[in-house]
Design brief:
1 helix; five-stranded antiparallel sheet; mainly beta; globular; about 130 residues
Length: about 130
């Protein structure tokens, strides 16, 4: 599903349409407890130039910085997390893509939206910062 117009659909609406938006209920204590990203670097903050995944809602938990334009494999993401798109538009397309187990795009993280405080990352198996 490709949605390019911010006026047509909000980010929350786009993620809800494909099942990536978190439900209003709070995630359980063990959600994403064992989550990791192949090639991702664990940080204390989201560095400038990185697309970042957080294991918890509201930018909490472990932070995985993803600086390169490549597919990163997501392992053991089993619940609600969050993301920040802190990339700079100078080097490449900075709209990230989430992909399912087959590599099919199931959602986007557009730079203009900047961040999503609560998103169900269970269906995502890959993320590519430069979609």
């Amino acid at each position: 599903m490709r949605i390019r117009s911010a006026a047509a659909v909000t980010m929350a609406g786009a993620f809800a349409a494909i099942g990536l938006l978190a439900p209003p209920a709070t995630a359980g204590g063990n959600d994403n407890a064992g989550a990791w990203v192949t090639g991702g670097t664990v940080h204390n903050y989201c560095a400038v130039g990185d697309f970042c995944l957080y294991t918890g809602m509201l930018y909490s938990g472990r932070v995985f910085g993803l600086p390169n334009c490549t597919d990163y494999a997501m392992h053991e993401w089993n619940g609600i997390g969050s993301w920040k798109n802190n990339q700079t538009p100078d080097s490449y397309n900075t709209d990230a893509e989430f992909k399912d187990a087959r590599g099919v795009v199931i959602g986007h993280a557009w730079l203009q939206y900047g961040a999503e405080p609560a998103v169900n990352l269970t269906p995502a198996y890959y993320v590519r910062p430069c979609g």
